[in-house]
Amino acid sequence: MIRINLLPHREQAKKARRTQFYSLLAMVVVLGGVIVLMGYTVIQGYISNQESKNEMLRKEIASLDKDIAEINKLKEQTAALLARKNVIESLQRDRSETVYLLSELVKQVPEGIYLQSVKQAGVNINVVGYAQSNARVSTLMRNIEGSPWLERPKLGGITAKMVNNRRLNEFKLSFALKRAKVEEPAKSAAAGGKGAKK
Question: What is this structure's pTM?
Fold first, then answer.
């Protein structure tokens, strides 16, 4: 019987398989490292790209915030200018109203009535005066109702008093001053344009 010793051949085959396994393992590790490195690089590229977009958006937002602040400042300045314009228009209107008030009082106060005080608060006028008779106060109230500048007369009361040894009736009367209509800018500009053409 012939015996063949196969031990060294098996050892060599085991050694070859082990070498092959280790080389495959090394290749898998290297390949995994390459994949991880590529994934990391791609992700870092995405992150840096997004960060640059975010930075650009931050700059745009800062620019828009600055524009909004300028707009708000312009709105405040516009509101302040409009308030000044309204105050100036009100002062100009009130200045002429006083002239109309005094002129109308001279026209509408009948003989036999003496005004002691005239107080104006906005469009409301309060008058204290003396009348020789109640009929004259009624005439004054009718005159005020018919006036183009005065309206809504309201009698506050009449009391008999002795003034310089004369018996007179002291009365309190309130009425309103009609506001002069302010011309609209468009109408006044059109009127100015027509005047210029002439």
Answer: 0.44
